[in-house]
Amino acid sequence: MIREMTKLDFEAFWPCFESVIKAQESYTFDPNMSLEMAYKLWCEMPLKAFVWVDGEQVLGSYYIKPNGMGPSDHICNCGYMVDVDARGKGVARQLCEHSQQIAIELGFQAMQFNAVVSSNEIAVKLWKKLGFKIVGTIPLAYRHGKLGYVDSYVMYKWLLT
């Protein structure tokens, strides 16, 4: 079930969030961020945050926010995280599909990912399957925890047909 995220949901999600940022393989977040700062960044600063729960277990989450202001406020940005035990089970796909529907409901016309780490091949492949295109490459933009400097992609999808 996907629903809006509560503070208690985020606290249950925190071990997943913390492991993702500490791995330094996909997010540009401070790996030493506190739970309080992470909650503010993931749940309070965006327009909305959602969580996928199965019973009491949090399988994944995403946030949605405008990517820009003024003449660019029709484009949104989302970030997704999936618990390691739920990966490969369609959670990210369903979160992304849900986020696109929510984006349209919120009045957005397009979605842009600003920094998809090129070595995150599973995510890049999924985003492409879901209609996102790589519209730019930022050379050596990400300091990967294991691989050193790798490229990041800007990925984009027009949501309205």
TrEMBL record:
<dbReference type="InterPro" id="IPR000182">
    <property type="entry name" value="GNAT_dom"/>
</dbReference>
<feature type="domain" description="N-acetyltransferase">
    <location>
        <begin position="1"/>
        <end position="160"/>
    </location>
</feature>
<dbReference type="InterPro" id="IPR016181">
    <property type="entry name" value="Acyl_CoA_acyltransferase"/>
</dbReference>
<dbReference type="InterPro" id="IPR052742">
    <property type="entry name" value="Mito_N-acetyltransferase"/>
</dbReference>
<dbReference type="Pfam" id="PF00583">
    <property type="entry name" value="Acetyltransf_1"/>
</dbReference>
<protein>
    <submittedName>
        <fullName>GNAT family N-acetyltransferase</fullName>
    </submittedName>
</protein>
